[in-house]
Amino acid sequence: MKAMILAAGLGTRLLPFTEFTPKPLFTISGHPLLDIIIHSLQSAGCKAVIINTHHLYKEIDSFLASQQYAIPVCTRYEPVILGTAGAIKNAADFWDNQPFMVINSDIVTDIDLRKVYDFHLSHNHQATLVLHDCAEFNNVWVDKNDFITGIQNQVKEAKPDHTRKLTFTGIQVLDPEILELIPDRVFSSSIDVYRKLILSGKKIKAYISKKYYWKDIGTPERYKETVFDKMAPQAFKQAFPGCVCKKIECSKLKGDGSDRKWYRLTAAGRSLVMVDHGIRKEPGTFEIDSFVLIGCHLYDKGIAVPRIYLYDTFSGIVFLEDLGDANLQAVVKAGKNLKQILSYYKTIIKLLIKMSVFGVKQFDRSWTYQTPYYNKEVILENECRYFVDAFLRRYLKLNTCYNDFEDEFILLADKTLEFSVNGFMHRDFQSRNIMIKDGKPYFIDFQGGRTGPIQYDLASLLIDPYVALSRHVQDQLLDYCVDELSSYIHIDKKRFCLCYQYCAITRNLQILGAFGYLSQVKGKTYFEQFIPTATESLKYNLSAVEDTQFPRLKSVIS
């Protein structure tokens, strides 16, 4: 058996995701659809495969060149799309005197292709079409003897022997004689060829798949559904070996500042969390790449982060350990025992030190999707300018601009980095990103990680407006961190604390910028309630540095 995979389509219904990635290279569990189909054909006994290409054909050629299949796989580029039948005719020199299989590149199925081919060999008709019952697409008429009697609008009225309508799966087996019905070098559809066969009195046999999975990924929604259908059971098997998941329930979780969507999946008394980052629109390193790479790295280093079980960075789907619903913010707000709260924070600070010291080892800076380092540019653009544009100008409607504070911001950036103790930096280390499960803290939302000062993460934790720790508790925990960190590396306490003061200011600017942006631009007004606490914190942190520093910033804040 030889086979053709039809892969020349433009993927119009999948725009904008097909602007840079052809539909056949959309992935499930990291495997492109094209690769999945080739392996299915190979397992079915196929001896050679040809793929017609057009849209982004170089991407397909490049992918195939990186693979080593057990059978020959080649492409046939079409400068002008020839249609499904035209593509078959255009590969006339590839076919031999045996029946061949043609399969669409945008389907996902576990239909046994060997059985389909053997079924075709068992009768003497020129074509076998594999059909499936899918109410949304059922448009092929089939009689009681499983012969196709009409396609789409060819049959205006159902006759007594037209017992049902089914869906064409995009899988077909054809005799070489069918090539005689297809015109040379012009656009031609297989459906038109089959209609001609039917009208001429010849018969097309239907292979009707039952109890098989089949879905086309012609739209973003159907692609996402397919990814979930195939990956969710696999994720449960990896997380819970021996778990039998007959049905997986999916419930949406409340989001936060991010645009990502979160879900809890439950099956057989077990649960996982699924996060959807969205389908990739273009090449490059994005949030999901950093989430997966940094998350796996930290987990391997023994850092308290959720285990990632399965992911697909093109579809944007990640399955990970379920840490429950209790975060540090909720625990602090519910807690009445200061001693217990301090105990939590001390445990978290120990884990923070471990993450900073050990997380930076073998950390590949190419994993980051923002910047590999926390540096002066990040402080000026992502903290200072963000504060001015999103909070002062957009939220408070103040007639001011970045240039009014530029010299002070430059001084702040220099001071922030002057005595930094660098390691792995989480970048958003606050109470809503620290989950408490069975009394143990775990860190989430680490995708913004990079190399940077531990003082910044510590400041994020201590000045966190979601919990509003008292100044006394903040100072106590700062001293505790210095003592704990000193057991790992030598540090100068005075310099460490000085850097911490400036990190607290830069972090405070970022917090207010984020609250202004989320409430005004994203419409997430929930965050507004924390603006007064964050503003008071910034006033206090600015007052803690020298009187001559940041006069204009102090003035606008007051």
UniProtKB/TrEMBL annotation:
InterPro entries documented for this protein: Aminoglycoside_PTrfase, Kinase-like_dom_sf, Mannose-1P_guanyltransferase, NTP_transferase_dom, Nucleotide-diphossugar_trans
UniProt-listed CDD domains: NTP_transferase_like_1
Span of domain Nucleotidyl transferase: 2-225
Start and end residues of each Aminoglycoside phosphotransferase domain: 250-464
Cross-referenced SUPFAM superfamilies: Nucleotide-diphospho-sugar transferases (SSF53448), Protein kinase-like (PK-like) (SSF56112)
Protein name: Phosphotransferase
Native source species: Candidatus Desulfaltia bathyphila
